[in-house]
Amino acid sequence: MQRRMGFLGVFLLSLAAAVSGLPGHHASLKRQVSQLRPTYDFIIIGGGTSGLTVADRLSEAFPKKTVLVIEYGDVEYAYGSFDPPQLWLGPPPAQASAWTFFSQPNPDVNNKTAFVKVGQLVGGSSAVNGQFFDRGSRFDYDAWTEAGGHEFRSSDIKWDWHGLLPYFKKSVTFTKPSAELVQKYGYTWDIPAAYGGSTPIHSSFSPFQWADWVIQRDTWRDLGLPIPKECAGGDKQGICWVPTSQHPVTARRSHAGLGHYADVRRPNYDLLVKHQVIRVVYPKGSGKSSSPPLVEVRSLSNPAQPVFNVTAKAEVIISAGAFHTPTILQRSGIGPAASLAAAGIPTLIDLPGVGANLQDHSGPGVIWNCNPIIQLTTITDTKPRTFSPVPADLLNATYLAEATAQFNEVPARGPYTLALGNTAIYVSLPRAAPASFQTIVSKILELANGPLSNVAPFFPPNTDATILQGYKSQLSALATLLSNPQAPSLETPWATGSDPTAWSFLLHPLSRGFVRLNPTDPLSQPLLDYRMLSNPLDMDIHLAHLKFLRTLVSTPTMKKYGAVEVSPGAAVQTDAQLAEYVRAQMILSFQHPCCTAAMMPRSKGGVVGPDLKVHGVKGIRVADMSVMPLLPGSHLSATAYAVGEKAADIIIDEWKKSWH
């Protein structure tokens, strides 16, 4: 078995073959039903971040068993989030395929709609995201178990921080920067605390920073924020270096389509592209208690081809993401009975939590202007000078050509290695709002400990009681999380003063949305109802974050440059004015949807248990970002890999016992 070939030797060759369709690229790449085997042991629905991780591990663990991944998209080159000739934070010149979603209007946010992009290719969203490769704090993942209650705390399968950390470590290969870069930028890391894996999913620090990056670093220091050595080891509070999901030599995007498919050579691992899974279906007369179901598929390249079934002998793993996993379950008759009936789908099992519990990061920003920038270019400089280079320099044709040439060197260097940046601050609610956080937490606890009727107004009419009960459990866990001075509530990514906005990411929203089938066309894209600010306490937290970020223009560093707040602006001072600013300026999605097939008890609106098996049916598991009960305080790519790794181990352990 050839497992991991030298990356530099095969990277461009394998991508060229994938894009051009050269013969012999992959014996496992299938495009027609006629190319499939009669049956498979495991069928994985969705060739994204978690799904390909599971497929790689299962095919490795069971070389005599067959694995099929069914993917809606195709094999494509995945551009980085900042590649030549793109300008800094400008529209990309080329991009891999993605779905674009617009939610239903949000009445509590001036009827704004959320815009969400989801990867539609082999590699999924890991192939189209911003390459920001952080993890949540240890307290984020501990909250998953707390929300699940006694049933989950007593399970042998642990999804808390200690249960996930080995999989975070296993899932990525981190490459430390050179001594020269450490001297220049002050990079810090802690491999024993956070890393140690040898998987060809790579993360690293860029060999480049824009020259004005020190402005915001010094601003956050002025605010008294700590600077931890490592923010991926569970302790995540203050000014953080965040790795980028790119190869440390080529600086090209590292994603699941490469590390868990293109770099894998196994005869038992097949990938069927350009096909849509319609549903999982139990053979007539077998019933939902038999296992496994069949997988009903249609060709996207040849719509005239009849719908066909693929048989799994062991089980089916759905890994189609926060929007499409609940859609497939609902088309299979697994979901809220009323919603299924509206779409004309017979109910196999009434499971109200399927498609419920939708969460995403959101927030407004604080914008300021500064005087022309003169500052130190490196940590060790003693003589001030004009900042150079800065993003505006890319408008110069000579510098743009130089930056492009540097990116194509081996090793790559220059601004195009930076992706969208690798710095952020993370701040807890007690630190951001020391005078008001206790009031907010008390209000959350009042809801958590009160009757269901107190939380029902935050949901659509006739919401099932199990969902309300589970929401109360989540609120209890969130109250613990938000009162913890070591658990971040706010994130602000930053990279350069040329984009003078401090974005306010609400890391732990209280509002919950839904994903539902389109009742007039169940095979089309689902309907998203984000319901942002449906719980008004989210506004209280937004205001607390916004007030904290407004203080940055008063720091000595910002005063040095004559910083002036542009937005919200001096005229906006009262809470009512700030609330209107939030509604008008809030970004409804920072592209981190999750939690729509939640790992919670069925009595609490859950869809899967700690073993990831769907409640009430046999032969189906879910392994992707839909299983999270609570949104962690991080971008989701690293967590998606860890969930895939842990899911694979759960499945492997169970079937080893059955087969040996």
Automatic annotation (TrEMBL):
According to the entry, every stretch annotated as the Glucose-methanol-choline oxidoreductase N-terminal domain falls at 321-335
Alphabetically list the UniProt keywords.
FAD, Flavoprotein, Signal
Catalytic residues (positions): H592 (proton donor), H635 (proton acceptor)
Q: Which GO terms describe its molecular function?
A: flavin adenine dinucleotide binding; oxidoreductase activity, acting on CH-OH group of donors
Binding annotation for FAD: T49, S50, V277
Which coenzymes or cofactors are required?
FAD
**Do you know which SUPFAM superfamilies this protein is assigned to?**
FAD-linked reductases, C-terminal domain (SSF54373), FAD/NAD(P)-binding domain (SSF51905)
Gene Ontology biological process: secondary metabolite biosynthetic process
What is the annotated signal peptide range for this record? 1-21
- Report the superkingdom from the record: Eukaryota
Listed PROSITE patterns: GMC_OXRED_2
Family, similarity comment: Belongs to the GMC oxidoreductase family.
Q: What is this protein called?
A: GMC oxidoreductase-like protein
